[in-house]
Amino acid sequence: MLKQTIFAAAALSALSGCDIEPVPVSRPAPGAEPVAVVSRTGSAQSLGDFRAVVARVEPVAEGVCRQMRPRDNCDFNIVIDSRPGLPPNAYQTYDDAGRPVIAFTPALIAEMRNRDELSFALSHEAAHHIEGHISQTQSSAQTGAVLGAVLGQLAGLDAQGVDVVTNIGGTVGARRYSKGFELEADSLGARIAARAGYDPVRGVLYFQDAADPGDRFLGTHPPNADRIRTVQQAVGR
C-alpha cells in the first residue's frame, strides 16, 4: 500500500484545437550520431518543486489522455511513495478501482536537478497509461506463458519443468516490447511536458548521469542515448 500524498491540480487548461498525434518511434540505426553531452544545471529538487510541476503537468496530461483515449480513466492520482529505503524511482500503476496512479519516491525527487527533469519524468509516466503499456505488457506476458506451457508439454516435461518454461515464456513476453514502450512514453511524454510549458530536452538530460542499462537482450529499458535522441526528435517534430 502506498503512503500517499495527493496534490490538487490547477484548473484545466483549454486544449481544444491542440491535438497531439501519435508519432512512430524507431530505434536509432547502428552507428547513429553520438548524443552531445550537455551539463545538467540546477540543484536537488524539493517536494515544493514537485507540487508545482504536478499542478502544471497533471491537467495537460489528463487533457491529452481524454483526447487520445476518451474511453479510459484519465483522472491521474499522483502520489509520493514514501516507504522507507526505496531507491530513486517513478512508476505508473493502477489502484483497486482502476484509477491510474503515478508514484515518485522521495529519493528520485532529490536526484532531479530542475523542474524540467521532474516534468519530463511525470509526463513519461502519464504517457505509459495513455499508450496502454501495462495492459499490452500483461497480454504479451500471458501469450508468452501459454506458448511456454504448450512447448513444455510437447517436449514431454514434467509438471515442474512445464512451470519453469511457462515462467520463462511469461518473462520473455513481458519484456518483448518493453524498450519500445519506454521510447514511446519518452516521445509522448516530451510533448506533454512541452505543452505544460517545460523543456523536455533539458529534462531528459537526467539520463546523462543515470546508470545506463545499455542495449541488453530482454532488458527492460533502452540505452540512455536512445532516450535522449527520441526526446530531441519528438520536440523537433
TrEMBL record:
Domain Peptidase M48 span(s) in chain numbering: 76-233
Domain of life: Bacteria
GO (cellular component) term, any one: membrane
Cofactor: Zn(2+)
Keyword terms, alphabetized: Hydrolase, Metal-binding, Metalloprotease, Protease, Zinc
PROSITE patterns in the record: PROKAR_LIPOPROTEIN (PS51257)
Molecular function as annotated in GO: metal ion binding; metalloendopeptidase activity
InterPro entries, A to Z: Mito/Outer_Membr_Metalloprot, Peptidase_M48
GO biological process: proteolysis involved in protein catabolic process
Family that this chain belongs to: Belongs to the peptidase M48 family.
PANTHER family: METALLOENDOPEPTIDASE OMA1, METALLOENDOPEPTIDASE OMA1, MITOCHONDRIAL
Protein name in the entry: Peptidase M48-like protein
